[in-house]
């Protein structure tokens, strides 16, 4: 199996995400996520938070780093209905709408091919 060229960056992101989760009892405010995380003296973004699949430009490989599910807004359903299998811990995350061969969907495919862990942020409130 190929090795993820961004494993160290991915580990730094996961460490910071866990620190934030611990500090906020699992309900991390968007403002805290917008600060991103530090890696080798640089600030790296957790995501744009306007689209669900994120691969920072600082990454060498093609695999995504984070997924973000939008919160339901007053009377409007989420654009994608992701599902969480509480028993098995798996997340069914839908591809970005449109053709499968767009950068965001390719980033998900690359993460799957490398078996790279992804950070999943679930929007809880608008």
How does this model look, in words?
It is built from 3 helices and 7 strands, in the order ααββββββαβ. The protein is of the alpha+beta class. The protein has one domain (7-122). The strands form 3 sheets. A 3-stranded mixed β-sheet has the order 3-4-7. Strand 1 (37-39) and strand 2 (42-44) form a beta hairpin. The longest helix is centred in the first third of the chain and has 17 residues, at 7-23.
Low-confidence stretches: none
Helical amount among residues, as a percent range? 25-40%
Strand order of the largest sheet: 3-4-7
N- to C-terminal separation? Answer: 40 Å
Number of strands: 7
Mind describing the biggest β-sheet?
3 strands, mixed
Mean pLDDT over the full residue set: 86
Structural class: alpha+beta
- The fraction of residues assigned to DSSP E strands is 15-25%
Shape summary = globular
Radius of gyration: 15 Å
Q: How many DSSP helices?
A: 3
Annotation keywords:
126 residues; alpha+beta; three-stranded mixed beta sheet; two-stranded antiparallel sheet; 3 helices; 7 strands; globular
Summarize the SSE layout with pairings.
Blueprint: H1 7-23, H2 30-34, E1 37-39, E2 42-44, E3 53-54, E4 66-69, E5 83-84, E6 91-92, H3 103-114, E7 119-122
Parallel strand pairs: 4-7
Antiparallel strand pairs: 1-2, 3-4, 5-6
């Amino acid at each position: 199996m190929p090795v993820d060229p961004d494993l160290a960056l991915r580990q730094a992101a996961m460490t910071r995400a866990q620190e934030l989760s611990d500090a906020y009892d699992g309900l991390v405010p968007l403002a805290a996520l917008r600060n991103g995380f530090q890696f080798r003296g640089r600030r790296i973004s957790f995501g744009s938070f306007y689209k669900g699949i994120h691969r920072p430009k600082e990454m060498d490989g093609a695999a995504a780093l984070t997924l973000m599910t939008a919160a339901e807004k007053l009377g409007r359903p989420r654009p994608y209905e992701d599902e969480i299998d509480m028993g098995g811990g798996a997340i069914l995350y839908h591809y970005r709408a449109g053709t499968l061969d767009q950068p965001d969907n390719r980033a998900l495919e690359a993460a799957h091919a490398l078996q790279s862990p992804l950070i999943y942020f679930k929007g809880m409130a608008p």
